[in-house]
Specification:
By secondary structure, this protein is of the alpha+beta class. It has eleven helices and nine strands. Strands 1, 2, 5, 8 and 9 form a five-stranded mixed β-sheet that branches. Strand 1 and strand 2 form a beta hairpin. Bound molecules: 1-[(4S)-2,5-dioxoimidazolidin-4-yl]urea. 1-[(4S)-2,5-dioxoimidazolidin-4-yl]urea binds next to helix 7. It comes from Diacronema lutheri. Homotetramer.
């Protein structure tokens, strides 16, 4: 597999002006951060090393500089966004979160919250929204506007670092190493659920995704209650929202556990988010004809 992107080490070895041109935008309209990090600690051999060096500049900057950094951020669904006046990075993030398609009621709430928040704290509300949904964003906004200023200053700086990390990863995407697996256990009989049909669909890139689901495949658990291999791995495994549908009713009907022709648990849908496709996500299901539970396994 070939990448059109530089490796993290190539990015970290760039001369000062090229480094600032490439990495500068990860902190919104604040290239001084990349400049100082390069002067202090280049070259860097990994994205983590770049992230640490950038953050060390931000965390040791004066309070005035930190405030200036926060104030470079555009409001979420604010005037700049409406006027199409955002940086390329912010445009992408706000669009992916569905903020460019708000209903009039949602828009009115964002406008009111943006006003109340900025009046109270003197800087804009900041949240890393790339993989968030508008409901999650609004929930966080309503809660955080009630916080004390010191708490919000620290939270906004932490969010700014998250935004920078997500932007950094887009500059030099890591080789895909993650995978998705599952395991079904029959808690009515105390054994693996063998021969249980499962469907997997991809619902889109963000938690607000409402695009047509994409069928990834139909699977059947083996004698150990697992799939024979990962349902997704490598470059096919993308961040976003997925849904398993477990045919629990059919499984118990075939085993004769369900007396009635209308099982209580029929299909069990399980919608889950992947926010780091470099990781292994193991999604087990424990089920009986009457109950189920799940967790993020390993
Ligand atoms: N205000 C604010 O949080 N802005 C941003 N957050 C984000 O992820 N992209 C932005 O533009």
């Amino acid at each position: 597999m070939t990448y059109k992107y530089p490796s993290a080490a190539e990015l970290g070895a760039l001369a000062a002006s090229d480094f600032v041109a490439a990495v500068g935008p990860v902190y919104e309209k604040s290239p001084w951060i990349a400049e100082r990090a390069h002067a202090k600690a280049a070259p860097f051999d990994s994205l983590t090393a770049i992230d640490d060096a950038l953050w060390s500049v931000v965390s040791t900057a004066s309070e005035d500089e930190q405030l200036a950094l926060l104030r470079e951020h555009p409001d979420l669904a604010g005037k700049a966004a409406l006027a199409g006046d955002l940086t390329a990075e912010s445009t992408d993030e706000q669009q992916r979160a569905g903020l460019s398609a708000l209903s009039p009621t949602e828009m009115a709430e964002f406008t009111a919250l943006n006003g109340a928040y900025t009046t109270k704290f003197g800087f804009p509300f900041i949240l890393a929204v790339r993989n968030a949904s508008k409901r999650i964003i609004l929930g966080s906004f309503r809660r955080r506007v009630g916080n004390a200023r010191g708490v919000e200053m620290a939270e906004c700086l932490a969010q700014v670092r998250k935004i920078a990390w997500m932007r950094l990863r887009l500059l030099a995407p890591p080789a895909p190493t993650g995978k998705l697996t599952c395991h079904v256990l029959d808690t009515a009989h105390g054994c693996p659920a063998a021969g249980l049909p499962i469907t997997l669909r991809y619902l889109g890139g963000t938690a607000s995704a409402s695009a047509e689901p994409v069928l990834i495949g139909h699977f059947m658990t083996n004698s150990d209650g697992r799939l024979d291999g990962p349902a997704l791995s490598g470059s096919a495994f993308e961040e976003g929202v997925y849904e398993w549908v477990f045919a629990v009713g059919e499984y118990f009907a075939v085993r004769g556990t369900t007396a009635s022709g209308t099982p209580f648990l029929d299909q069990v849908p399980l919608r889950f988010g992947i926010d780091n496709a470099e990781k292994h996500y193991h999604v087990p299901l424990l089920c009986s004809p009457w109950a189920y539970s799940t967790y993020r396994g390993s």
